[in-house]
Structure formats: structure tokens, C-alpha cells
Amino acid sequence: MTNNLKPNPLLEMQYQQLAEIAGCLWEKGWAERNAGNISLNITGLFTDESISKPAKLQSVNLDENYSALAGMSFLVTCTGSRMRDLARLPKENSVIIRISDNGSSYQLIPVADNKLETKPPTSELITHLGIHSLVAKRGTPEKVIIHTHATELIALTQHPGYKSAESLNHLLWGMHPETMIFVPGGIGFVPYTLPGSEAIAKLSIQCFEQHDIIVWEKHGVFAIGETVSDTFDKIDILCKSAKIYFMCRSAGFVPEGLSLSQLDELRTLTKKFSTQ
Ligand code: 13P
Ligand code: ZN
Known about the structure:
This protein has a domain at 4-149: L-fuculose-1-phosphate Aldolase. It is built from nine helices and eleven strands. The protein has helices at residues 9-28, 83-88, 125-138, 151-156, 165-175, 177-182, 198-208, 228-250, 260-274; strands at residues 4-5, 37-41, 51-52, 59-61, 73-77, 94-99, 105-109, 144-148, 187-190, 213-216, 220-225.
């Protein structure tokens, strides 16, 4: 007998959403090879009784303590997994982890029908857990984190003039009015730091105190949201703006951008909607 999580319609929905968004990332061209990773907070979607467990569940120690996440469960993509494979086989390319009651380790919860040997969670796990922890501490409703190699936004960070949140947001908001409407908090900027490191996790968490989406210089973006769709939308909208900018430059002209007063007008409108 194996350790398996019994079939559960709520969890099945999460797998469907994971598969759908993985397909979108692949279609967008943001997911070469194993690029990108996704985590979903699925706390409360299954009970201990739904795990048949003749043997002890595998436990992995964490270098940091995540007390704000104690007892919480996450669906996380496996390291090395391809988004195009996740789109077809979400269970085989992801794991469910549950943070221990003291926040210092996690257990791997085996999933029914997962016939392949389980790979470890993403190499960016500490950034994902750090961001989920920030969300838990402040009590906001975000459940989804997407990291992807969004080409257009990465390209911008190759330019010395776009290595700050201020310069990036001025450019991106100016390319299309809906960018300000749907991403009013703008994008945060993390200077180049080794991927998978504690240093990049810390810088990212700081950046998420002010933004719902951040860009890692010359690497990719991280975004958070309540659902996979609204998380994806934030990345998509900012990429649209970046694309407009590059398209204008390729056509041989520098885009005008929206004026400061036009941006202020949009900011006021956005604030009015968010307080209604
Ligand atoms: P993983 O395959 O470990 O998730 O890494 C992909 C990635 O994009 C690293 O930044
Ligand atoms: Zn990456």
C-alpha cells in the first residue's frame, strides 16, 4: 500500500488551474526549458484523514523558520519541471508540502495517481515561502505565486536606465492607460542576485511589501494574486506595455508615453474604484 492523498474535487480544481496557467506561460514563450515555478496555498483543502499513511511521511528541514506558515499546505511545482509538461501532467510535476507545526520543516504529502518518483520542490522554494509568510503575517488574501521568465520585462532590465522601480513604472504606466488601472502598485525591482539564494529571497520579500509584482534584474518576474488568473494578468499587462515600448523603438521612434497629468488622472480614478 502506498501513501496517497485520496481524490478530492477541491484539489482537482487547483491542479486544473495550475495546468491552465502553466500552459499560458509556455504559450507566451516565458517558459524555456524548466523556467519558472508556481506555488498555491491550498491550506484546508484536504484533511489528515484523507491521507492513507501506513508509513511515516518524508520530512525535510528548512534553513529558516516559517512560523507564520505553521501547519499550512502548498501545491508547489517541482524543480526542473517544464511548464509545457505541467500543463499536461500537473500531478506528476508538482508536490504538496505541509509546513510543520513549529515552522522549521515540511512534509511531502504524496498524491494519488502520482506514479513517477517525486522530485523535490522548486529551487526557489525559500522565496515562495518567504512571500507566503509575508502574506500570512499581514493577513491579505493572496494565495498564488508565479515566477516566470517574462521576456519583455527581463529585456528592459538589460538597460541601465531601467534598473529601478521608479524608471520602470514611469515607462510601463505610460505605454497604456490600463497598466495604471490594473497594476496601480507598479512593479518592484530587485538588482541582480544569485537565483535560489537567501539573499534574493530577502530582497524579494522586502519588495513585495510595496508591490504585487517584482522583476529580478536579467532573470524574470514574481507575482502574487488571489487566483492564478489574476496573478497571470499582472504579468501579462506589464509585458503588453513593455512590448508596445519595444515595438515603437523597433519602428524607429521613441514612444511619447502618457503625460504626468494623464497618469495622475488615472491614479485618481483607480483610487476612487478601489475605495468603492
Ligand atoms: P526550478 O526548476 O528549480 O523551479 O527553477 C526554475 C527557475 O526559473 C529558477 O529561477
Ligand atoms: Zn527563474
